Amino acid sequence: MIQSLLIANRGEIACRIIRTARAMGIRTVAVYSDADAQALHVRQADAAVHIGPSPARGSYLVGEKIIAAAKKTGAEAIHPGYGFLSENADFAQAVTDAGLIWVGATPSSIRAMGLKDAAKKLMQDAGVPTTPGYLGENQDPDHLKAEADKIGYPVLIKAVAGGGGKGMRRVDDAAQFQEMLASCKREAASSFGDDRVLIEKYILSPRHIEVQVFGDTHGNIVHLFERDCSLQRRHQKVIEEAPAPGMDPDTREAICAAAVRAAKAVDYVGAGTIEFIADASEGLRADRIWFMEMNTRLQVEHPVTEEITGVDLVEWQLRVASGEKLPKRQDELSINGWAIEARLYAEDPVKGFLPSIGRLDRFALPRTLRTMRFRAETGGAPEEWTPPGRPRIETGVVEGDSISPFYDPMIAKLICHADTRRDAASGLAHLAADAQIWPIHTNATFLHALLVQPDFTAGNVDTGFIERHQEDVIFPVEPLPKALAIAARAQLGSYPAPTGFRLNAQPQQQVRFIDRGDVFVADLSTRVAENDSNFLLLHHQHGETYLTLQGATWRLTDARVEGAGAGAASDGAILAPMPGKVIALDVAQGDSVGAGQKLLTLEAMKMEHSLTAPFDGTVAELTVEAGGQVTEGTLLVRVERGGDA
Ligand code: ADP
Asked: Could you tell me the residue range of the domain that residue 509 belongs to?
């Protein structure tokens, strides 16, 4: 068995790997960039090596530095996690050449599956059904267009080197094709350094179903059943579950067998995932499921498989990398219950999912499900009740840490395992609702709203789900009068009046609270029922009250405390929400604009963000040019109310 392991990653996955390695008695080595000097994974590892500046291309993506760190600390093996260098065949080869153990797929399988076009060809040869389309031998735009016309719209343009949902464009009609192609190629070139694309038939009501496979160096390959990852936003997974809703045993058998065939075609070793797309317009049918791609690494959503199979996939990875046989045979693996995972992001759904960065003044994720006063099903009869389900939290941050603009904004994964899908979903909804995080904005409200959607609980999922339910799942939460009254009573009861209060104040009927520039008035005479507090979470710290409702959190500061009013109101000034580059400018000074109209596109954190007009008006100030770099907080555009828009 490996004695010491370097983890070439950061965040939750680095912490996750450290946990299993430690339980197996393996010494762990972390690597870190400038921004991560104080990060949790660094604190948790037995040793840590600084590998460079904050941007990943100077640190987490530099293979030589990572190998040097392993040599320096005497680590025998390298686990790449997911993302970064995990699917880089040259790095895998360099690790092996340096005499180290690579905890992952062989360089040749990574290469074989690395490009979507080559992988599809390989699968066709292995008799695995693939999505109809054009594999892109000829990249001439007019030729690609002709192929798309032949396939028939809608089509999906995909970067052959793409991943993580980037480098894809859906085209609904021929007239849009060239524009979409150009934008796809631009994104592919900047994200993957390869602008080649392929074209696929766009499957309507598609479901994303993937199969976890595992191989060892003794020629054994097993599958660990399927996951459904259909709940996606812009092709990025948001909620994942195992098993897949509506999967019958025959269809399961067929796709799991196809997955094992696919893995055998590349003599697969280690943990891998075969992704399929299913046309679910008439339920799941074995003849309507096609191979999409293989990910030759551990997936973000691996915990749901671990929960239903009882297997620690990281432990298996370390055993297989040490040369051991797979710990279980296919007939020893079975599905137990249901598990769902939700990805918690530092982003603001109400503001177009703009990443939210800064210090986590408050960061408390529920580790258990909260006991409720009343059970909804009993119609209000008093009863202590804990929602069923076993929570699991994976995170790489703790309170006081900062979210930097340099990396993926996923700050935690919330997972719930229960006997039934219904209980797993309801338990997870409670976890999302009780995530208390401030002042960073998160998608917890959005996750909660998704998990309680009747269509979701009924298992009617497909990749268009989020877009279709947009209006029901993206909304700002207001602190309810009842919630404010509860917060005010708790605050008055447990804390002496803050300093700076006027003497001779009237007996209080109202408490004015301030949070991030907003004023909330709590009316103490508001009637509250005993079970109203089931729907909110309160926490007092340093004389302030954190109120959490449906995943949204406010820090309530008594308005009479000096300095409580700091914070700006919107005056039409559009500030850069983070450092980035202006990649397109849609307006000029003096233009009339309508509320919601796109003003410019900012590229930041490897994503394109559209900034829009807050109300009807005129562009009064424009301080940037297309191509310009901006720092956080820079005034980009100022819209003045009125005008003739
Ligand atoms: P990535 O490597 O970026 O994850 P994938 O090829 O795995 O890209 O596709 C990501 C998602 O895009 C899928 O989960 C699915 O929702 C959607 N998708 C991919 N191919 C198609 C298709 N042919 N038709 C419809 N949706 C698709």
From this structure: 481-558
